[in-house]
């Protein structure tokens, strides 16, 4: 879409920036990635009063132009890089009126880049309520920029902001804030001269950030490095000098424009809430209660929409089978593409619900309290207070949980969280566990109240959490930190969640998942379909010929004949052949080639195990009925020993394998999406497979 | 005396920092020399702590607080 003016939205975290973005653009927005990095780029459009169209770019929230995370480093590069498709004509700096001082730091930095600026003074209603008296006209006159008071949450002042955008100047008219040249005169002059820059602050930023800026060539960056040595430029010292100078300027500025009461009203309420929510006893009880409620809801509320989606696809498959002429094309479309699509869409309810909760927790300010309470424990194992939610979310599904790790700013903490989250027992493992436990663990009580089967299942869940923590601890020593870990974090005032934002976040995350991870999942499901429905040479035609002979067609009913055929076809398919190929490898952990087939097909998703078992053991009726699968598996005999295939050792070995192995195409896809590097999902796949094989081997040989 | 040694409810005024890298981050967040800081609460497990500075609440680890020297 073509726009007449491009506007970048910049501001501190927790200032209502995304609320303002949503208020300006409505549903008229699209999400992508900034080139080369995993940072969500949100672009929206808004109609100005004079009929022009403005394109609004939402930049990640940051406290200053000096980045503390990779997300934040986007801000300066978008503002600074000239003549790209993102270079803004105008910057709106959104400022929280209840916290002017800290918010103005970023404003003065952006203003010194000499891009035309408008200030959106957000939460003006709250600041009035808190008794903060701001002389907006005087402040605007002193700064030399328009200030528009808004309340994004109440949709007040949005029209005025649009008008201000339409009247925006082409030239920056803001007042000088601090003496930038005085901070590092030598290097600023050299860089300005060599790069032909007339803005001293831009030159200073180049000196600070040249190593990470993509628009500088390696030679240019090398040259700046050399200039730094010549002039004795020390980045951190210069930054300290600059920050102090800026706050002095801000203090002067606010001295006769703003009157703040001693304690703000909101804050005292917030303080009371904090006394309970971060209490040493109640704090943890409430937190555990919130988590339990969250995951209960993810299970309970997603059940109905998920079965609805599955039902819809079953109906679609039936319909397509009736319309399309039977043949390989119809099979590919129905069993490969449509089945893959249903495998993607079925995750939407869980993703949407988890992100509804996460966005409520973040919006209200509770998430930062969770981090505050959990940081000490989580730090010990190489994680971060913020890793708690993805890890617990892993009990429902690793896919949305891995997407939610973006709230973790520290790169190393985030990577470790991503790497261990798939170990947590997700809901797809549940059918596998219940099937196998019911098969080998007797249904009786020990010590009166504990059911043995229940204990086994609980054990699997505890094991998953313990293994995730141990692996995280090991990774803490393997991964090298890219940045020094620190925990300087704002604890925002408690606020009511903005329901619009909650809805946006549900919609956005689901859409991202479907578009990005969906491709990989469908591709894998098509490949698996090919593997299980084609066989080498003319094996399949031979099977069909064999069962056309009268001794079969006359003695067997058509549906049981079809079942026998499909079982034999699966055995002779590429997947079946692969099962035979990997048999020597999986024999030491107690699996035969039939289980091998299930392991291969389960790569698409773990719950496929039950369905594959049903096909292999040719179950009567509905494959979803676990009882019937169970009976068939119980009766399966090992041709070598004459005993049952599924002994206690084999069943537990299988459970260990499913507990640790990365058998989930969706997770692989989402890890790739979040890390933008195939080496992460590859490393994860390898370590989890090794762990799975090792655990299965150990358990099989102990129980054999 | 450092910020780490303050108890809940106690106030101090920032004098200087012992760690340059940390000081840059802290100053950006409004925790500057001359600024008054008050410990508002300590996390249930004793670390991190929350302080009131520049009109808002900031949380930081004990180690980080120990790099802030008070007047």
Automatic annotation (TrEMBL), chain A:
Mg(2+) 1 binds at residue 22. It is found in: Cell inner membrane; Cell membrane. It is a multi-pass membrane protein. CDD domains: FeoB. Residues 4-171 form the FeoB-type G domain. GTP binds at residues 11-18, 36-40, 58-61, 122-125. GO terms for cellular component: plasma membrane. The chain crosses the membrane at residues 281-301, 336-361, 381-403, 415-441, 447-474, 513-531, 645-672, 684-703. InterPro entries: Fe2_transport_prot-B (IPR003373), Fe2_transport_prot_B_C (IPR011640), FeoB_GTPase (IPR050860), G_FEOB_dom (IPR030389), Gate_dom (IPR011642), GTP-bd (IPR006073), P-loop_NTPase (IPR027417), Small_GTP-bd (IPR005225). Mg(2+) 2 binds at residues 23, 25-26. Keywords: Cell membrane, GTP-binding, Ion transport, Iron, Iron transport, Magnesium, Membrane, Metal-binding, Nucleotide-binding, Transmembrane, Transmembrane helix, Transport. It comes from the Bacteria. The keyword Acetylation does not apply. Belongs to the TRAFAC class TrmE-Era-EngA-EngB-Septin-like GTPase superfamily. FeoB GTPase (TC 9.A.8) family. Probable transporter of a GTP-driven Fe(2+) uptake system. This is Ferrous iron transport protein B. The gene is feoB.
TrEMBL record, chain B:
GO terms for molecular function: transition metal ion binding. Pfam families: FeoA. The keyword Iron applies. The keyword Disulfide bond does not apply. Keywords: Iron. Residues 1-71 form the Ferrous iron transporter FeoA-like domain. InterPro entries: Fe-transptr_FeoA-like (IPR007167), FeoA (IPR052713), FeoA_core_dom (IPR038157), Transcriptional_repressor_C (IPR008988). This is Ferrous iron transport protein A.
